[in-house]
Amino acid sequence: MQICIDNATNLHFVASDSRMLKRERQNRILALIRAERIGTQEELRAQLERAGVPATQSSVSRDLEELGVVKHHGFYALPQANGDGKRGLVSLDVAGDVLVIAKCLPGRASGVAVEIDDAADGLIVFRNSATDTVTVLFRRADGNLGLIEPEA
Questions:
Q1: Model pLDDT for residues 38-72, shown as the tens digit of each residue
Q2: Could you tell me the domains of the chain?
Q3: pTM attached to this predicted model
């Protein structure tokens, strides 16, 4: 992913790695599950494809596990704040290419933060967790922290 500024005023984010696609796919999965009754991974994969988000059955399966999605009465459902989600993760919000906010069940943010640390493989620049929220700033794919000047 790249962040660049043109004319010193406009900020642009350019995706250049698979993490961006994964975040987009996971956000779309959450939106689809909120909007429709989906009962199988194949239905979900087909919905993603129709929305222009490529996905395999195995990537959908991993995404559902990572997002803490459960089956309820035969259909996928998001974990409820008053329920007991497997990890405690309720939702992921992405801001730009490098900032992620994880909303968690009360008291579960610390455990979710540890899992994020383990999965991030050295890509985290900064992480902070409260009782129900984890804020993570990731290193760009090219390893830089700052902004990239526009290409000449």
A1: 999 999 999 999 999 999 999 999 888 888 788 88
A2: 2-138 (1.10.10.10)
A3: 0.46
